[in-house]
Amino acid sequence: MSTAMQGSNRVSPRSAGRVAARGHLAALPDPVSDGLRQLLRDDFVASDEACRQHANDWWPITKVWASEGEVASIPAAIARPGSADEVRSVLDLCRQHGVPVVTSGGRSGVCGQAVPVLGGVVLETTRLNRLLEVDETSMCATVEPGIFGHKLEADLRRHGYTLGHYPQSIEISTVGGWIACRSAGQLSNKYGKIEDMVLGFDVALARPEEQGDVISFPAIPATAAGPDLRRAFLGSEGVLGVITQATLAISHAPESSDGLALTFNNFESGLDAMRRASQAGVSPAAMRLYDPDETARHFGASDCAAMICVAEGSSDEVAAQLKDLRRIALGAEQGDPRWVAHWLETRNDVSALDIAIERGLVVDTIEVAALWRDVASTYGAIRQAILEIPGAMMASAHSSHAYSSGACLYFTFVGVGDAGSDLDAKDRFYASAWSAAMEAAHAAGATISHHHGIGIVRLNAFNTYTSQAERDMLRALKRELDPMNILNPGKIGSPEDEERSSPNWPPISD
Asked: How many helical (H) and strand (E) elements, i.e. helices and strands, does the chain have?
């Protein structure tokens, strides 16, 4: 970090927020605040209220903190550029003075990616919110990064197309955030994850203009022109650059949609049916299997595992897919057809989180992915690991994304700290549950994240279970593209031994 930042006034991590780093920047240098105000006018905001609003994203533990008036880490100001040139100007000004920049869209991430652990400037992209072009010949659309998911989908539908990307956060998440965190939508079985849709994009870098402060990856269907470096930005969580526009593959809007509910004697039987369907090329838009605990919670059925399937396409395609699913799902019983409508109506409802927090509980979700040979054992290992943590009350899972080679497991856990409503006790329980789950996932052969990313909550696990060579490669990229380490510092790719810049997380156990 530059001497300009090191010489700035600081506040203690706790007063700046529960995960603020030791080097938290309390105030912007005058040249930065004056320059940003001149550049952005009313779209440069430094009020206490705005800064506190941008101290958190949707990381669930921050909601627990907010219930007692505490925040994660407070930035010094919010910058809302309205063009790619303004994005570059913000980065250049902050780079010259060593001011941290955290890119933010809808702040819907659930792992702390958008938490500004070193304070500084939050670069909010939501003014960059246009659908720029629909190329009907090539079946792709070019968009700005700050467009919200539901708006993009509505715009595409008016042209007769769909992106097919429906994350639970679709109304509060943006295209740039999807790409930066490798998002998965609820209909990924048919349309793929966001990285399967990205054809090209532009990135603004925190480097001097004369060294090259923009990378433009042209939209192409495939390439063999050396290593595909664009892939390094997918899932980079804002540590390498700021996406300023992207071109995405689109599909024709479906003519028809229908659903099917099935039940299995146990979760493992349902997983086997998912495997056989995926390997037979039967890929409905959604194929979700709930373990018995989640089946009871969502659908009121007991002693079974429920599968919800939704098929999209032409009427013939939909009918054929549902027929094939019934044939492949050996031993399955017909579920209540009303379950499909119930899932469609409630799939984005997260109100249970607020209710649980009001009751003094700690709740979160953990998604991993494993090969089919390891999926069932991964399910058992992670569930057991969480339930063994003192204070754990429940750990359940469903499988929501299936591939021919494996599947995603999506866990929900609930618990309390050992001292009731004490925030430190809740933090310790929460951190212990995450640590146990990550250790169990790695030991079982699973990846530690399928689509939520790393952020703060998985940072220790990433540094522990990712190879040294892979971490070195990421840090080398960051040093070259962000030489002042101003882009989302303290997250993936940052020096692991620089305690001053690291998040104040996880809490120290007693």
From this structure: 19, 18
